[in-house]
Amino acid sequence: MKQPSSWINAFKREALGMLRWLVPGLGVKRWVGLVLSGITLLGLGLAYFLLDLYRTTPDGQSLLLVLDVASLRFFPRPVRVAIFLLLGLGLIIWGLWGLNRALLNPFLRKDRRLVDQIADFRRRERGSRTVVLGGGHGMATLLRGLKNHTYNLTAIVTVADDGGSSGRLRQSLGILPPGDIRNFLAALSNDEALLAQLFQYRFNDDSGLGGHSFGNLFISALADVTGSFEEAVAESGRVLSVHGRVLPATLHDVRLVADVQIPNIVNQVRVNGESKIPEMPGRVRRVYLEPNNPPAFPPVIQAILAADMIVIGPGSLYTSILPNLLVPDLLSALRSSRALKMYVVNIATQPGETSAFGVSDHIAALEEHTGSDLFDVIVCNNRYEGKLPVGVDWVNIDDKAEMYPIYGADLLDVDRPWRHDSEKLAKVLMDILYERTGPLGE
Length: 442
What we know:
Elements: H1 4-19, H2 29-54, H3 60-67, H4 77-104, H5 114-125, E1 130-134, H6 136-146, E2 153-157, H7 164-173, H8 179-188, H9 195-200, H10 214-226, H11 229-239, E3 245-248, E4 255-261, E5 269-272, E6 283-290, H12 298-306, E7 309-312, H13 317-325, H14 328-336, E8 340-344, H15 359-370, E9 377-381, E10 406-409, H16 422-437
Parallel strand pairs: 1-2, 1-7, 2-3, 7-8, 8-9, 9-10
Antiparallel strand pairs: 4-5, 4-6
Helix pairs in contact: 2-4, 6-8, 6-16, 10-11, 12-14
């Protein structure tokens, strides 16, 4: 039990904290004074009203003679009551409105009304608990759209990346690759216009940091300062004002290995390293993690089991999506989860991984690694318009795909038809969820 002096000290601290609201420059005192003036006028109006009732009693006559010298005597008493009540209420409303503006202005967007922003925030705050698994630009696109529907987002990221800036930092500092995590934090940021662009900034070759992005270096430095990679990711999310979480699938140092069937060679060739797999000519037959049984990051399991909707993809099939599903605990949690599970098929093929693949080929490759009946819905693009890069083809809904629960829709980005449109994709996924479960959080 606290000693009396402790309570006194705590009271002093709270009182001093309250007095800080009176510091000049906060823009708060004027509105507080306006509210107090309104309360005073409202009290006077109510007093006149009660006195008007009291004057009907014999004992109230002498008292009214004394109080009748109040202001506005030249108005009839009912008019004075109305004036004070209306003025009081008006000043209170005006003062509260101004106080809210003074407190919230630093956090408001200038192009939207306060009530709209609050309503939008509450809607997203009550949004569905959504988990997204994958990696690369496709998943960043999806997150950019989903954050407009819900703040309860968890992005689960593969840590098998060993190329580019991430691979160099992984090799030199011994940390998990930060590249995909950086991309997803930027996609979830509320300030993509500046902070996210800074996070994505890549130094040129003449700087001595050639090829490194600022975000990768920032996360790496934070990992050293905080003592853990996961804490560095969490702190980076706070810096970027992220609603949601980005979590590594595992905290173990894993490598991606693939068996590739090369034309005119009988035996399959084993390729070590995520970045080398797409460069190998031939068709990927199977991918593995080394070590092959890494434990999942515990918050990942919790997020999956608590989810309303789980979305896998879009992204590189063998190097972004499957490395997550090859973590045994994570796959078991997926199968145990009662969430609506959807797989988003890529719009276009990816040279080196899925050349000549249709929708059924993508699903078959997933089932070879994870088993059948993992997904409730397969979401595919059914609009094939626009010019694709050389060597890239549409991923068509072929005849074999009809045996799966296919949901086709226009999902392509008109400017870059080989990629998904973030808003279209997010809306389709939320519509499917609401169709199955009804709107959540209402």
